[in-house]
């Protein structure tokens, strides 16, 4: 294809039917738009991580990338960030749309400072660090007693005072963060690390959990109540946002939670402890975490007793549960200490380990275009 060539991309009458569409011109993938009968063409590949601009939408004269909503002028290719994608001349001849093979403007990538979370995860020197995550939901200013959170706090206090660990407690309910919007469902590469929402929304506070998990903790001790036979809705909201961590395993062979230890505290008014624990164990196993022997403790009031006021009193007073919580964190810390000391062989699993082979889809193996 010569640079001065004009390429026929189709019938003008047919192409006017859609405001935006992807067309190919030789090897080029273009986003062809049509507003009030006027055609314009820019590259169909977004500067961010390669989203398909030809599948985007129009906002006035701006084309919105369907992946993370960067916008480009549909004719000049200029974005709101100072970036631009190549633009191409368009002309109509005999009701055919012709696009210039040679772009009239070039792709420009301005320097975007990487998000702080994107830095390499290198463990800083120091004692074993235990991150407690409480996923109990409750109204701000109307706190109530939470059995799982109480046991978590007692475990953390033990880790700090007796085991010499650094500890941190995040009550997930204190954070404002958005639901995962399923960027992965658009394309595996659309699910980025750091999370696309974190990158585009500075008010989103999921970054506190990412920072603690990826860059700080050796042990994550996660507490949840049982809600209708499952972990809490807040737990699921949080782990859906961890899809970006798991996805790095599969598409980039990158292990963000390498050799960290996870353990769980599960309490409820109704049973289903093993199913709840199984789901949590599977998810954190998929993230590449290690588990101590007996990786969770649980307490349930059971099927036939719904006297929850007595249950709260029971947990408050129970020395057995307190000892269980302390023993759990001790097992997790001992395992983390081995890992920190290099006594557990560093694993380099392939594609998330469980798949045991590389992905078949070539597009998913392409290196991401960094912003
Ligand atoms: S905004 Fe286009 S790929 Fe992210």
Q: What is the rounded Rg? A: 26 Å
* Gross geometry: elongated
**SSE arrangement, N to C:** EHEEEEEEEEEEHEHHHEHHEHEHHH
Poorly predicted ranges: 367-371
Within CATH, the superfamily of the largest domain carries the name: Flavodoxin domain
Q: What is the residue-mean pLDDT, rounded to a whole number?
A: 91
Strand order of the largest sheet: 12-11-13-14-15
Question: What amount of the residues lies in strands?
Answer: 15-25%
Bound molecules: FE2/S2 (inorganic) cluster
What would the CATH topology of the largest domain be?
Answer: Rossmann fold
CATH top-level class of the largest domain = Alpha Beta
For the biggest sheet, the summary is: 5 strands, parallel
Q: Report, as a whole number of angstroms, the end-to-end distance.
A: 29 Å
Number of helices: 11
In short, what is this structure?
This protein is of the alpha/beta class and 371 residues long. Helices cover 29% and strands 21% of the residues.
Task: Offer a few descriptive terms.
binds FE2/S2 (inorganic) cluster, disordered C terminus, Rossmann fold, 2 domains, alpha/beta, 11 helices, four-stranded antiparallel sheet, five-stranded parallel sheet, elongated, Rieske Iron-sulfur Protein, 371 residues
Could you describe the 3D structure shown?
- The protein starts with 5 loop residues before the first strand and ends in a 6-residue tail after the last helix.
- It is 29% helix and 21% strand.
- The longest helix has 22 residues, at 319-340.
- Strands 12-11-13-14-15 form a 5-stranded parallel sheet, with helices on both faces.
- The protein has helices at residues 12-15, 147-161, 183-186, 196-200, 206-216, 233-240, 243-252, 273-286, 308-317, 319-340, 362-365; strands at 6-11, 20-25, 28-35, 38-43, 57-59, 62-64, 71-73, 87-88, 90-93, 96-100, 129-134, 166-171, 219-225, 261-268, 296-300.
- The protein is built from 11 helices and 15 strands.
- The relative contact order is 0.11.
- Strand 9 (90-93) and strand 10 (96-100) form a beta hairpin.
- The protein is of the alpha/beta class and 371 residues long.
- The chain binds FE2/S2 (inorganic) cluster (FES).
- The site of FE2/S2 (inorganic) cluster (FES) has 10 residues, from loops.
